[in-house]
Amino acid sequence: MGLKAIHFGGGNIGRGFVAEKLHMTGYEVVFVDVMDSIIEKLQSTKSYTVTEIGGEGEKVNTITNYRAINSKTHEADVIKEIASADLVTCAVGPNILKFIAPVIAKGIDQRTSSTPLAVIACENAIGATDTLAGHIKDPRNTPHEKHEEHDSKVRYANSAIDRIVPQQDADAGLNVKIESFFEWVVESTPWTKTGIKHPEIEGVKWVEDLVPYIERKLFTVNTAHAAAAYYGHNRHKKFIHDALEDHEIKKIVHEALAETSHLIVKKHGITNQEQKHYVNKIIKRISNPHLEDVVERVGRAPLRKLSRKERFLGPATELADRGDNVDALLGCIEMAFLFQNVEGDEESAELAKILKEHDAKSVVEKVCGLTEKDKIFPHVVKIVEKVQKA
Question: Out of 217, 237, 267, 284, which one is annotated catalytic?
Answer without folding.
Answer: 217
